[in-house]
Amino acid sequence: MEKSFPLHECHVNKVTIIINRTHAILHSIAILFLIHYRLSFFFQHPQNITIPTLPWLLIFVSELILSFAWFLQQACRWRPVYRNVFPERLPVDDKLPAIDVFICTADPKKEPSVEVMNTVISAMALDYPPEKLHVYISDDAGSDVTLRCTKEAWNFAKYWVPFRRKYGLLTACPDVYFSSSEDDNGDYKGSEFKAERKKMEEKYEVLKQGLRKIVEGHFTTNVAINNTRDHPTIIEVINKEEDEVKMPQLIYVSREKRPSHNHNFKAGALNVLLRVSAMISNSSYILILDCDMYCNDPTSARKAMCFHCDSQTPSSLAFVQFPQTFRNISQDDIYDNQIRFAFKVHWYGFDGVGGPIISGSNFYIKREALLGSFNKQQEDYFTGLNLHRKGWKSVYLNPERQQFLGTSTTNLNDSLIQWTRWTSGPVTVALSRFCPLTYGSLKMSLVQVLCYSELAFMPLLNCLSLWGFAIIPQLCLFNGIPLYPKVSDPNFNIFSVILVSSILKSLYEVVTTGEQLKVWRNEWRIWMMRSVTCYTYGCFDVILNKLGMKEATFLPTNKVTDDEQVKLYEMGVFDFRTATVFLAPLVTVILINIAAFVGAVVKALVVDDDGDQYWEKMFGQMFLSFFILISNFAVIEGMIIRRDKAKIPLSSTLWSVVFSMFILLIGSVILC
């Protein structure tokens, strides 16, 4: 009997597990000591209490919330696993299952047609039998621009796809191939290849010019623009005729939308694609891509099939998730666009306890699992939760070569808007009857339930705790009220251990995932920024929607690049040209910390006769303010030092001064 070799393998990193669990135990013990210290305050004799109860209670609640968030995070570190695949062991092409590719676009103004069509072309150029590959582009705007651009992309793909196949190119996306400095010539470097490459590059330049003319001619003339919320259904098979060269099928789909009906955003578009594709191709597996997330490595389909086609894989496997990676990440990455904590830490932990969630893009899913699963605006998070709750499994594959590459935001405004939208989906689920703590226990392990809960509650827990840490100790510092033990008090060691433990663990994860120390600094800073801005507004948006005071909306991330913004991003300089609604809370927090810290230093050096005693008593709060200010020095620089166009506007600073003075005044009266 012939021996069957596995198509994939799974490794459990025991060293990482031991480190993670040991740290979790030690850190938990420190948190228990902190809770004991805070609770003992309430059992003192009233005559011995010299600190107001309200600020003590508020900071204790903030510490409990942050501790609960930390506890949920440990589920994602409980059992990380790592996977390898062997696509060379796959059966012959005739025995491979068919794949449908779904590409969703919503707004040709915010999603450049050149990028969208590169995604379409790269999907058609996957290393997979062309007769078993069907590419669907969903145009939710119903725009004539996208339809015409799709036809232009098809005309170019007729040349690009055979060219990539013939020479075995490692890059499926033409834009990346022709703009990259890497030597991707496949197995050929002769004169014939060079001549064909030059012709292909000329054809690609013609394609780009043609796409730009279509877009510019549509938006700069009096051509009627379709109403994005009111248009009929359009389904068009682009390659109707048989071609000499075998090509994947390309289908354009624009669903009917009417103002009187809820269209459910991307989830609605995907459900329509499921129905349309069932009538045309009905492939067993589906690859879902965002419009700017092109196929970088053409072998991703075969790598995913190493799981779906392996006889050793359980039939309950629903999807294979690849990470989202981006081609325009700068060396400094000040906005944390790579989302390291998710794709290099958490998703491995998810994989070890049942599989990662659906990450919105870059996953090959079984059609059987997907039918009827997409739910309103939370199509990714809720769909993953519902599948796992029913007993489906998933796996996470992160090969050394990036399989998919997209375009990340390059300015603070787009980044905060994007994270506000990303916040609203999981929080909506967390505050509904589908809360994973109560809804997710049917066929999910406790650890997997906690993993989903961490994602659902993370924005809410972070914004609540960070607002507490950013204001309460500072108000008390401003008024000379200690909330932390003296440096000489043994209880001070509790807070020191917790802080050092958190810093060392995060540093360890940054270093072991191959990143530099500045990534750790950037992640701490952007975490603070998001907590008081987009996490806060995302949670408010959900609450208002629950109360019926605001209708749910979907804002596509702006993918149009601005050369000036890109230059600042690559230099590691924040672009503060965003709405005052984002800047005001951020600057207000910084101003409150400046006032509290400077006031405390002046009091210790000039006013207080016993300066040493004051330093010892208030050191914890002074250090907290100093840490916040140092971590967010870029905000101070944007307010005071910078003179360029991307600085913080004077109007935003003035509004923040008013807000900070109001908080200092009212807070001092109420708390102290």
Automatic annotation (TrEMBL):
<feature type="transmembrane region" description="Helical">
    <location>
        <begin position="492"/>
        <end position="511"/>
    </location>
</feature>
<dbReference type="GO" id="GO:0012505">
    <property type="term" value="C:endomembrane system"/>
</dbReference>
<keyword id="KW-0808">Transferase</keyword>
<dbReference type="GO" id="GO:0030244">
    <property type="term" value="P:cellulose biosynthetic process"/>
</dbReference>
<feature type="binding site">
    <location>
        <position position="266"/>
    </location>
    <ligand>
        <name>Mn(2+)</name>
    </ligand>
</feature>
<feature type="transmembrane region" description="Helical">
    <location>
        <begin position="49"/>
        <end position="72"/>
    </location>
</feature>
<dbReference type="InterPro" id="IPR029044">
    <property type="entry name" value="Nucleotide-diphossugar_trans"/>
</dbReference>
<dbReference type="InterPro" id="IPR005150">
    <property type="entry name" value="Cellulose_synth"/>
</dbReference>
<keyword id="KW-0328">Glycosyltransferase</keyword>
<keyword id="KW-0472">Membrane</keyword>
<feature type="binding site">
    <location>
        <position position="111"/>
    </location>
    <ligand>
        <name>UDP-alpha-D-glucose</name>
    </ligand>
</feature>
<feature type="transmembrane region" description="Helical">
    <location>
        <begin position="653"/>
        <end position="671"/>
    </location>
</feature>
<dbReference type="GO" id="GO:0071555">
    <property type="term" value="P:cell wall organization"/>
</dbReference>
<feature type="transmembrane region" description="Helical">
    <location>
        <begin position="622"/>
        <end position="641"/>
    </location>
</feature>
<feature type="transmembrane region" description="Helical">
    <location>
        <begin position="449"/>
        <end position="472"/>
    </location>
</feature>
<protein>
    <submittedName>
        <fullName>Cellulose synthase-like protein E1</fullName>
    </submittedName>
</protein>
<dbReference type="GO" id="GO:0016020">
    <property type="term" value="C:membrane"/>
</dbReference>
<feature type="binding site">
    <location>
        <position position="290"/>
    </location>
    <ligand>
        <name>Mn(2+)</name>
    </ligand>
</feature>
<feature type="transmembrane region" description="Helical">
    <location>
        <begin position="24"/>
        <end position="43"/>
    </location>
</feature>
<feature type="transmembrane region" description="Helical">
    <location>
        <begin position="581"/>
        <end position="602"/>
    </location>
</feature>
<dbReference type="GO" id="GO:0016760">
    <property type="term" value="F:cellulose synthase (UDP-forming) activity"/>
</dbReference>
<feature type="binding site">
    <location>
        <position position="140"/>
    </location>
    <ligand>
        <name>UDP-alpha-D-glucose</name>
    </ligand>
</feature>
<keyword id="KW-0812">Transmembrane</keyword>
<dbReference type="Pfam" id="PF03552">
    <property type="entry name" value="Cellulose_synt"/>
</dbReference>
<feature type="binding site">
    <location>
        <position position="110"/>
    </location>
    <ligand>
        <name>UDP-alpha-D-glucose</name>
    </ligand>
</feature>
<keyword id="KW-0961">Cell wall biogenesis/degradation</keyword>
<keyword id="KW-1133">Transmembrane helix</keyword>
